[in-house]
Structure formats: structure tokens, C-alpha cells
Amino acid sequence: MNTSRTRAIRRPLAALTTAGLALALTMTACGRDEGSSGAAGQGDAVSDGAATGTIEVWAMGTEGDALQDFAKGFNEDNPDAKVEVTAIPWEAAHDKIANAIASGETPDVTLVGTTWMGEFAESGGIDPTPADLVDPADFYEGAWGSTEVGGTSYGVPWYVETRVLYYRTDLAKKAGWDQAPQTLDELHQFAADMQSKGGAEYGIQLPAGGTGSWQTFMPFAWSNGATLTNEDGTEYTLDSPEMTDSLEFYKTFFDDGLSPTRTLDAGELESGFADGTYGSFISGPWHTGLVEDAGVTQDQYAIAPFPGADGAPGTSFVGGGDLAVFSDSDNKESAWKFVQWLSDPETQQGFYDLVGDLPAVKSAWDTGKLADDPQLQIFGEQLDSTMAPPAVPTWDQLSAAVDSETEKATKGDTSPDDAVSAMQKQAESIGTGL
């Protein structure tokens, strides 16, 4: 395991604010979709030739702010086309997209939070991905899976992120660890040693519950063989021995005092990582900049793949964003050609250079900074082993129950077995929506 610490990931991504992270929890997750059942169906092929006409695009966050100028490259290659980007706040995006679909008054292309893919695909609001537009094998498997709903792909992954282990290398050395933990059992021992020998007040910081806490808990469950749905996404399957065992194990970090049970205030994780309160935590690429802004020097910490049941990497959560074309688009062919252009490896590298978004296309990682930076390569390694919730219409609703029941278990208000049973009961009451 390489425990050396290199420079932070490109600042536009690394310096996301805590508020931006909170919004990321609402849009989540591209990933290998548990409801995916093999080769996805596709829409009609797009014709050859240049794009034409106006292509109206909705995009959110940093991507929405940067895309208009970046799209000049597409306009140069397609002089008879004009891309017009409207930047939308993430907190308003879901309802704006849903209302546009309901009214039939839509733009052409939108960035989609991937836990919304099932809802918008089932409503008929977005089109299937055209045949031969892109090769699914060019993308991280986890990322492509997020576009598949009921066996059909409804978009193309644009950018990705995943969760890895951050840890203080200086405290780890004091605790007797010269490399990161490889297994989940080792992670528990690592946290205990960071606390008892390394000097950390808490060996690790894990969310006991709260909005989006499933994104940290589920890697423990996925790495232990748990699933959320059956293969075709028609039934939830939370109530399993693997899920219960995973929640029991997750609970031990709180029972043993290795992680606090309370919800941290904004900025508290970063400052606590800097002053040694927290010896480690699990998060995405934005935290490289945040911890350095808090005063952690580059030789004081490292990142490592999420531990697995039998060795690293385990199966981590994957997030990011997909691009979809509205069914009511007035310029579908050109819209899909714009999506195709954004999926080109060189284009993906260029967008990474601009805003720091990690490419969803694997070959974009083969040259330049993405290939040369050891830290980035850890994220790339983890992206080969990721999972996301199934792209079904009701996941956003059910995830709130998973968060709530996880918190009840970690805080001792209910047993892990009863918590998982309650998750399944809620799941069966709402169904997957497929």
C-alpha cells in the first residue's frame, strides 16, 4: 500500500464548500446499479454529421458555471450549432426538471442526479440512450450502471467521485501502522490503535445517521455481500444476514467509542482532523483541499482504498452526474451529439483540467495528471470497485428510512436486526416503482 501523500487534487474540485457537499448528498450517485440486469436496451441511433441548431442545456453546481465557456470547443467543431447553458442550483434542480417534464416545456439536455434516473425514466421524461452513441465498456462499470433503468440506458455518465479512507499518517505511525488497513476487521483495529496509541481522541469519524449517512454505511454492507434489490430491481432485499451483520459491525465503532455518535458541525471534521481529534474518516476527493485549508500538511495524511471483507479495495459508494436528453427536446439528434462530445476522452480530460471533475471514461485517466498523480490513481483504483443504489423511482424515499434506522441502531435505540427489518418493511410498503 502506498501511503505517501502527494499534492491535493485540483483545487476547483477539492475546495468544494461544506454547503456544496450537503447539496451533493441530494443528487448522489452514479454507480454499478444493483437493479441492472446485464446488457441495457438502447434508443434509435443518431445520424452521422455535424450538430445543428440551438442546444439548450441545464447544468448544476460548478459544472453549470463552467460549461458555457467550455462548450465553445463543441461550437467550433459544429459551427451551425449553438449551445446555451442555464446554470441551476442543485437544491432547485429536481423539482425544476420534474415540472418541465410534466409541462412538456423542456430544454434539450440536462445534468441529472443519478438517484433521480429511475423516476425520470419511468415517467417517460428522458429518452433512452441511442444505439452506438458511446461504448458502455469505455466507462467505469459503476458509472454506466447508474444510467440503466429496467434494462435500458437513459443517459451517459459525465463525471464521477468515490469514497476512500483519509487518515493521519503521523498518528498511524505512532500507533504502529506503516500502511492503511486492508480489511474491515483491520479498519476497526486501526481505529482502536489510532485512539489508544496514536493520540487521536477518536480513531475514526463515521456518521451515526442523518441525511446521506447511507453513503458511508452501505460500503460496509456492499463489501460484505449485502444488496438493496433483486437483480431486475423489482423488489427490495435489505432484510438479509449480510445487511444485519454489516450494521452490527458498523455499530461497534460507536459502541467501542471509536467514533462519536453526534452530528458534527460544518467544518468540525476538517479542524478535528487537523488537531488530531479524528484520526481518520471516509470521504470523497473534495476533502483533500478542505483538510489542507484546515492546516493539515501534505506529509501528515494519506488516502487509501476503502477496506474490503478480505482485502482492499472493498466496494465503495460512487457518485457523480449523468447527462440525459429530454423526450420533449426539439433538437434530440444534436443534443445527443453534444453528450457524445462531452464523453470523448480528450474532452473529459479538458473538463477535469478546468474544474477537477474526475472522468467517467476510463481511458481519460491514461495520460496527463490523471495518470501521473499517485493520489488520483487511488481514486481511479477505487472506481473499479464501486456500487450505487438501484436506479429505481423510490430510492430517494427509502434512503431516508435507511438513514433513520441506521441512526437508531448506532445510538442504541433499537437492535441492528430490528433496524434492518424496519428498513425492509418500509421498502415493501412503497415498492421499487418498477
UniProtKB/TrEMBL annotation:
The keyword Signal applies. One of its GO terms (cellular component) is ATP-binding cassette (ABC) transporter complex, substrate-binding subunit-containing. InterPro entries: SBP (IPR006059). Keywords: Signal, Transport. Residues 1-24 form the signal peptide. PANTHER family: MALTOSE-BINDING PERIPLASMIC PROTEIN, MALTOSE_MALTODEXTRIN-BINDING PERIPLASMIC PROTEIN. Residues 402-434 are annotated as: Disordered. Residues 423-434 have a biased composition (Polar residues). Coiled coil: none annotated. It comes from the Bacteria. Belongs to the bacterial solute-binding protein 1 family. GO terms for molecular function: maltose binding. Gene3D superfamilies: Periplasmic binding protein-like II. The keyword Transport applies. This is Sugar ABC transporter substrate-binding protein. GO terms for biological process: maltodextrin transmembrane transport; maltose transport.
